[in-house]
Amino acid sequence: MQPGLTNRLTKYLRVTQQLIEENRDAVSSKELGDYTGINPVQVRRDLNAIGFSGTRGVGYQAYDLVEAVRSILGLKQTYNIALVGAGNLGSAIASSTMLPKRGFVIHDVFDNDPEKIGRTVGNVVVKHIDELKRSVKEADEIIGIIATPSSSAQQVADLMVDAGIKVILNYTDVLLHVPPDVDVHRIDPTAQLMHTLYYLTQVGEAS
Fold it and tell me: What pLDDT is stored for residue 138 in this prediction?
Protein backbone atom coordinates (compact mmCIF):
# COMPACT_ATOMS: atom_id res chain seq x y z
CA MET A 1 0.00 0.00 0.00
CA GLN A 2 1.27 3.47 -0.85
CA PRO A 3 2.44 5.50 2.20
CA GLY A 4 0.19 8.39 1.20
CA LEU A 5 -2.89 6.18 1.18
CA THR A 6 -1.92 4.63 4.51
CA ASN A 7 -1.57 8.08 6.05
CA ARG A 8 -4.97 9.21 4.72
CA LEU A 9 -6.71 6.03 5.86
CA THR A 10 -5.30 6.58 9.33
CA LYS A 11 -6.86 10.05 9.36
CA TYR A 12 -10.24 8.71 8.17
CA LEU A 13 -10.09 6.09 10.89
CA ARG A 14 -9.37 8.61 13.63
CA VAL A 15 -12.16 10.95 12.54
CA THR A 16 -14.72 8.17 12.15
CA GLN A 17 -13.91 6.74 15.57
CA GLN A 18 -14.37 10.17 17.11
CA LEU A 19 -17.73 10.57 15.38
CA ILE A 20 -18.84 7.17 16.63
CA GLU A 21 -18.03 8.33 20.16
CA GLU A 22 -20.43 11.21 19.46
CA ASN A 23 -23.14 8.64 18.62
CA ARG A 24 -22.90 9.06 14.88
CA ASP A 25 -23.91 6.07 12.72
CA ALA A 26 -22.78 7.43 9.35
CA VAL A 27 -20.22 9.85 7.95
CA SER A 28 -20.02 11.51 4.53
CA SER A 29 -16.97 12.01 2.34
CA LYS A 30 -17.45 15.76 2.79
CA GLU A 31 -17.26 15.43 6.57
CA LEU A 32 -14.17 13.25 6.32
CA GLY A 33 -12.70 15.84 3.99
CA ASP A 34 -13.57 18.76 6.26
CA TYR A 35 -12.07 17.11 9.34
CA THR A 36 -8.90 15.84 7.62
CA GLY A 37 -8.26 18.59 5.10
CA ILE A 38 -8.43 16.05 2.25
CA ASN A 39 -10.52 16.71 -0.85
CA PRO A 40 -13.81 14.72 -0.66
CA VAL A 41 -13.14 13.39 -4.16
CA GLN A 42 -9.86 11.93 -2.89
CA VAL A 43 -11.68 10.50 0.12
CA ARG A 44 -14.09 8.63 -2.16
CA ARG A 45 -11.24 7.40 -4.36
CA ASP A 46 -9.35 6.09 -1.35
CA LEU A 47 -12.33 4.26 0.11
CA ASN A 48 -13.22 2.83 -3.29
CA ALA A 49 -9.62 1.64 -3.58
CA ILE A 50 -10.05 -0.53 -0.48
CA GLY A 51 -13.41 -1.81 -1.71
CA PHE A 52 -15.59 0.25 0.61
CA SER A 53 -18.58 2.13 -0.74
CA GLY A 54 -21.19 4.41 0.76
CA THR A 55 -24.85 5.17 0.10
CA ARG A 56 -25.88 8.32 -1.75
CA GLY A 57 -27.56 10.75 0.62
CA VAL A 58 -26.47 8.75 3.66
CA GLY A 59 -22.70 8.39 3.44
CA TYR A 60 -20.59 5.60 4.89
CA GLN A 61 -21.71 3.39 7.76
CA ALA A 62 -19.32 4.46 10.51
CA TYR A 63 -18.85 1.13 12.29
CA ASP A 64 -18.33 -0.76 9.04
CA LEU A 65 -15.87 1.87 7.84
CA VAL A 66 -13.83 1.58 11.02
CA GLU A 67 -13.70 -2.20 10.71
CA ALA A 68 -12.74 -2.03 7.03
CA VAL A 69 -9.94 0.48 7.56
CA ARG A 70 -8.63 -1.27 10.68
CA SER A 71 -8.48 -4.51 8.71
CA ILE A 72 -6.61 -2.88 5.83
CA LEU A 73 -4.13 -1.26 8.22
CA GLY A 74 -3.62 -4.48 10.15
CA LEU A 75 -5.24 -3.13 13.32
CA LYS A 76 -7.70 -5.96 13.94
CA GLN A 77 -5.80 -7.24 16.96
CA THR A 78 -4.78 -5.64 20.23
CA TYR A 79 -1.20 -4.42 20.57
CA ASN A 80 0.66 -4.39 23.88
CA ILE A 81 2.83 -1.39 24.68
CA ALA A 82 5.81 -1.08 27.00
CA LEU A 83 6.00 2.51 28.26
CA VAL A 84 9.21 3.77 29.81
CA GLY A 85 8.89 6.92 31.88
CA ALA A 86 6.38 7.40 34.69
CA GLY A 87 6.64 11.18 34.96
CA ASN A 88 3.95 13.64 33.96
CA LEU A 89 4.04 12.75 30.26
CA GLY A 90 4.23 9.00 30.81
CA SER A 91 1.43 9.11 33.36
CA ALA A 92 -0.77 11.06 30.94
CA ILE A 93 -0.12 8.51 28.18
CA ALA A 94 -0.79 5.57 30.51
CA SER A 95 -4.04 7.19 31.69
CA SER A 96 -5.34 7.90 28.19
CA THR A 97 -8.73 6.36 27.46
CA MET A 98 -8.22 6.76 23.72
CA LEU A 99 -5.50 4.13 23.25
CA PRO A 100 -7.60 1.09 24.27
CA LYS A 101 -10.36 2.25 21.92
CA ARG A 102 -7.79 2.18 19.12
CA GLY A 103 -6.56 -1.31 19.96
CA PHE A 104 -3.46 -0.30 21.96
CA VAL A 105 -2.94 -1.38 25.56
CA ILE A 106 -0.33 0.04 27.94
CA HIS A 107 0.64 -3.34 29.34
CA ASP A 108 3.59 -2.24 31.46
CA VAL A 109 5.16 1.02 32.65
CA PHE A 110 8.81 1.20 33.66
CA ASP A 111 11.03 3.71 35.43
CA ASN A 112 14.27 3.78 37.42
CA ASP A 113 13.08 6.27 40.04
CA PRO A 114 12.50 4.47 43.38
CA GLU A 115 9.76 6.99 44.24
CA LYS A 116 7.79 6.05 41.12
CA ILE A 117 8.29 2.27 41.18
CA GLY A 118 5.29 0.55 42.74
CA ARG A 119 2.95 3.47 42.09
CA THR A 120 -0.04 3.07 39.79
CA VAL A 121 -0.38 5.14 36.63
CA GLY A 122 -3.52 4.54 34.66
CA ASN A 123 -4.31 0.97 35.64
CA VAL A 124 -0.70 -0.19 35.62
CA VAL A 125 1.79 -0.56 38.46
CA VAL A 126 5.17 0.95 37.61
CA LYS A 127 8.01 -1.60 37.40
CA HIS A 128 11.77 -1.13 37.54
CA ILE A 129 13.38 -0.71 34.15
CA ASP A 130 15.47 -3.83 34.83
CA GLU A 131 12.29 -5.89 34.34
CA LEU A 132 11.75 -4.63 30.78
CA LYS A 133 13.34 -7.52 28.88
CA ARG A 134 11.55 -10.24 30.84
CA SER A 135 8.24 -8.43 30.64
CA VAL A 136 8.47 -7.91 26.89
CA LYS A 137 9.21 -11.60 26.38
CA GLU A 138 6.30 -12.72 28.57
CA ALA A 139 3.68 -10.26 27.32
CA ASP A 140 4.71 -10.01 23.66
CA GLU A 141 5.01 -6.24 23.87
CA ILE A 142 5.96 -5.23 20.35
CA ILE A 143 5.66 -1.45 20.72
CA GLY A 144 7.76 0.71 23.01
CA ILE A 145 7.11 4.30 24.07
CA ILE A 146 9.92 6.48 25.39
CA ALA A 147 8.61 9.25 27.63
CA THR A 148 11.76 9.92 29.62
CA PRO A 149 14.09 12.92 29.88
CA SER A 150 16.14 13.31 26.69
CA SER A 151 19.34 12.33 28.51
CA SER A 152 17.97 8.80 29.04
CA ALA A 153 16.38 8.25 25.63
CA GLN A 154 19.22 6.44 23.85
CA GLN A 155 19.86 4.15 26.80
CA VAL A 156 16.17 3.25 26.94
CA ALA A 157 16.11 2.66 23.20
CA ASP A 158 19.07 0.29 23.55
CA LEU A 159 17.21 -1.64 26.26
CA MET A 160 14.11 -1.85 24.08
CA VAL A 161 16.11 -3.12 21.11
CA ASP A 162 17.82 -5.71 23.32
CA ALA A 163 14.39 -6.79 24.58
CA GLY A 164 13.19 -7.41 21.02
CA ILE A 165 10.90 -4.41 20.54
CA LYS A 166 10.65 -3.52 16.85
CA VAL A 167 8.56 -0.32 16.94
CA ILE A 168 9.47 2.65 19.14
CA LEU A 169 7.55 5.88 19.64
CA ASN A 170 10.00 8.52 20.82
CA TYR A 171 8.55 11.48 22.72
CA THR A 172 11.96 13.08 23.29
CA ASP A 173 13.93 15.41 21.03
CA VAL A 174 16.79 12.91 20.64
CA LEU A 175 17.57 11.29 17.28
CA LEU A 176 17.89 7.64 18.28
CA HIS A 177 20.45 5.23 16.85
CA VAL A 178 18.84 1.82 16.35
CA PRO A 179 19.32 -1.17 14.00
CA PRO A 180 17.72 -0.95 10.53
CA ASP A 181 15.00 -3.45 11.43
CA VAL A 182 13.69 -1.23 14.27
CA ASP A 183 11.10 1.35 13.27
CA VAL A 184 11.33 4.63 15.21
CA HIS A 185 8.63 7.32 15.13
CA ARG A 186 9.47 10.63 16.76
CA ILE A 187 6.42 12.28 18.31
CA ASP A 188 7.13 15.99 18.04
CA PRO A 189 4.23 18.36 18.88
CA THR A 190 6.30 21.35 17.75
CA ALA A 191 6.49 19.97 14.22
CA GLN A 192 2.69 19.94 14.00
CA LEU A 193 2.56 23.46 15.40
CA MET A 194 5.07 24.65 12.79
CA HIS A 195 3.00 23.02 10.06
CA THR A 196 -0.13 24.73 11.39
CA LEU A 197 1.60 28.12 11.57
CA TYR A 198 2.84 27.69 8.00
CA TYR A 199 -0.70 26.90 6.86
CA LEU A 200 -2.09 29.95 8.67
CA THR A 201 0.62 32.13 7.09
CA GLN A 202 -0.24 30.87 3.60
CA VAL A 203 -3.94 31.48 4.16
CA GLY A 204 -3.22 34.96 5.44
CA GLU A 205 -1.10 35.82 2.40
CA ALA A 206 -3.73 34.49 0.01
CA SER A 207 -6.57 36.50 1.55
Answer: 87
- Print the domain residue range for 9: 3-72
Pair 62, 25: CB distance under 8 Å: yes
Structural domain total, the chain: 2
pLDDT beyond 80 at 3: no
Domain annotation covers residue 200: no
Q: Is residue 196 a part of any domain in this protein?
A: no
**What is the mean pLDDT of the segment spanning 122-141?**
91
With a cut of 80, say whether residue 43 has pLDDT above it.
yes
Side chain identity at residue 96, one-letter code = S
On whether residue 111 sits in a domain, the answer given is yes
Residue 45 parent element (H or E): helix 40-49
Mapped onto helix, strand or coil, the DSSP state of residue 96 is coil
Longest dimension (CA), the chain: 59
Distance CA 85, CA 80 (A): 16
| Residue 205, domain member (yes or no) | no
In this prediction the pTM is 0.67
Straight-line distance from the first to the last Cα atom of the chain, in angstroms, rounded to the nearest whole number: 37
In sequence order, the β-bridge partners of residue 55 are 59
